[in-house]
Structure formats: structure tokens, C-alpha cells
């Protein structure tokens, strides 16, 4: 085995996905010598197997569906989605799974890159093993940040592992579209991939143990389920998969809890995520391999072992299980990078709620878009979550189809909006929109929730007419003038 080499940096970041890159950018721009370690592609899951390719697969079908909802445009639509062109566009957006441009960005930002598998090997120490077996020992003078993300959870279903099921990675990087696709799960990945693959011509069957999008407001799952079924997707709810086998003709047959069977060319498992912490050396600092990493609001890893003393180990993104969303991980990364720099310089740390160095929004102000058709855009608490938290609330509902802007936007526009009001403070706790193109409504709602804008002040935020944003006026009218 080649002899090990060693290097010292101020900050070591394990994982060069979108989250790790943002940590490294913040520490490097603050003058700290930073190295980032990556075992796969710089840019990570989001760039190559999640956010970007999945939205590329969805976008063409969504654009075509939007045209078909507008008289005068629908008459001009003469064909279906060009599958080969969609896949070529997906490949261009992922740079054909090449990270050359991302590596150039690291070089420009002054961030060192070491390729290989990283493991904690001591306090402020990381050992990286390259593909050829060469070991490099990295030492940090200030901080190590774990940003290794998460991986798909494969449920313990008899026979499932032996049929080589797809995860989100295979679904977003597939070289062709199968004739049929069975999807196990009812969350965001399952709903988005059902939408995408149905638009690309696959016969899609969803097997959902509970209801679709069950963590959202109930009407979100109901409207998306109805739309999927209208688009010839078979959505089986309240049923689970009890067995799987690949047949002699290559198809997969799934046995369901109600005694029926589903046969498809491929099966996609979208039932949750696991942290990528099983082989990063957590045991060397008194933590349990494979566990999610508990952090405080400055993203500092929590634990009682003496090895964690000195505020040096951080965890950002999916691995801390606070909010498994790229944009939220990048938000954490900026806070973590800045607080690492502040602690290194001995300057004050602003870790109070909504402070510069605190990821406060993770608790109750997380925005999320599900890019189904219709889209689901939400931020903050749902009705059920607000009630469980003990808030004194009022629920405001409005049919988006009643808006003048909706009637211009699309014929027979179908959608709904809900706002959750904290009656004691008269501020918004959460907002959910469901409908075509509602994603662009979300940031206004996020500002209102994060900023705790009083209802009486929102009356002075006048929405343009005729737009979907007029829903804000209608929700306020539902609540009543001061």
C-alpha cells in the first residue's frame, strides 16, 4: 500500500455536494484555508441525481400540460413530449455527469479538493483513501464539517433487493423510459417521478401505504392524487408491498397486502432516506455509525464524548435530519461557515433566534415545492402541526380557481390555498398553495412567515391584478379588516 501523506488546513469539509460547497465557500471567503473531500462527483446528489435532473425530466411535460390548459395554445399542440429530446436536455443539465465545471469553481474560489473516501480518524483529523488505496491524513486547526447527505432507504420487503429496484438515482439518470413503472411510496420523490414518467409515456402504478403527500395539508395529496389519476396513473392507497420477484420475462411482480399483484418493467423504491454516516468514522469521536447527527442551531454536533469538546465538529444538510432539502441545507451551510469563521477569529457569535449564525428557519419556517402537476408549495406549519404545537389558530382557505388571475392563467384552473394564523400574535404560521405554477407564490409566503409580518401590515402589500398573487387579498378578506 502506498505510504500516507499528510496536510493541514483550517477547515475540512467532507462531502462536495451543494451543501458542502457552500460551507467551504463561506470559510474560504473568510480567509480560512479550506479543503473539501469528495468520493464521487463535485456537486453531489442535487446536481446529478436529484434536484436538477428530476426537474429536467418534469419540465417538458409540465410545459406541454400548461399549453393544453389555455385556449388558443391547445389548438397549436400537435404532438406529445419528445422523450429523446427530454433525456438529451436532462443530460445537458447534468453536464453528462461530469464535474469539470464544479471543480473549476472550487479552484477559482481557492478551495482545495481531495478525492476519495473520508473517515474521521481522530479529533480534527480525517483520513482520505483514494481509489488506488493511497491514504492522505488531513488535520484541521479549527473545524471538520460532515456534509455527506443521505441515501435511499430500501425497506425490508421479501425479495425486493434481489429484483435490483430503482432508487431516485436510477430514476433520474435512466437512459430510457420503461414501458411500465411501479413506485413504492407516496412522498415527494414518488409523486414527482410518477408525474415525470407518466408524461414520458410509461404506464405508472403507485403503491402508497397511507395517503399521498401525507405530511402536507390533506387537500394537497387529494388534488395531486386526482390529477395523477386523471393522467392515467394508477394510485393505490392504503396498501403496502409484501413481496417482490423478477419474472422469467424480466418484469417485476409485486405482491400487495390486499392479496393483489402489480407487474411492471421496473420498480422504484421511494420510501425514505438514511444518513450517509455508516462509514465516516463516527465511532472515533464517540458517536454511532449510521445515525443521524444531532446538532444545535449553529450546526455544531452534539454529544457527550470528550472527543467532541472544543466546538470543532459540525454537520450540515441531510445528515442532521433537520430538513432534507437542498435549499435548507445550503442555508445551514452559510450559517455554519460563518460561525466557524467567527469562532476561529474569536469574534462574537450571533446564535440567538434569527441570528447570523443560527439556522432558526429549520424549526418552523421551511419552504418546499413538490413539482407535480398541480404543484404543491408550502412553508411553515400545517394545520395539524400548529394544533399539536399548541397554537391558538384560525385557518383561512380559498379556492384559487375563483381568482381573476387564475381564469387568465389557465382554462378551468384548479387549485387551493390555505393560511394558518396565530390568533394571539396575528401573524402567519404557515401557508400552502396547490395549483399550476404556484411555486412562484411561495417566497412571498416565506417572507411573511419568517418576518412574522402582522396581518394588519399585510393589508398594505397590494397584489397586482390580475395575477395569482391576488390570493393574498382574498385570504385577508377571509380573515377580516382590522
What's this model, at a glance?
The chain is α/β, with parallel strands linked by helices. It has helices at 18-29, 44-48, 51-68, 83-93, 100-109, 168-173, 188-199, 218-230, 326-345, 361-364, 383-388, 404-409, 442-450, 455-458, 471-479; strands spanning 5-14, 34-38, 112-115, 117-122, 125-129, 135-146, 150-152, 180-184, 203-208, 234-237, 241-246, 252-256, 261-264, 266-269, 273-275, 313-315, 367-370, 375-380, 393-399, 416-422, 427-435. Strands 1, 2, 3, 4, 5, 6 and 16 form a 7-stranded mixed sheet that branches. The protein has a 5-stranded antiparallel sheet with strand order 17-18-21-20-19, sandwiched between helices. Strands 10-9-8-14 form a 4-stranded parallel sheet.
Describe the structure in your own words:
This protein is an alpha/beta fold. The protein is built from 15 helices and 21 strands. Strands 1, 2, 3, 4, 5, 6 and 16 form a 7-stranded mixed β-sheet that branches. A 5-stranded antiparallel β-sheet has the order 17-18-21-20-19, with helices on both faces. Helix 1 runs parallel beside helix 9 and helix 3 packs antiparallel against helix 4. The longest helix has 20 residues. The mean pLDDT is 97.
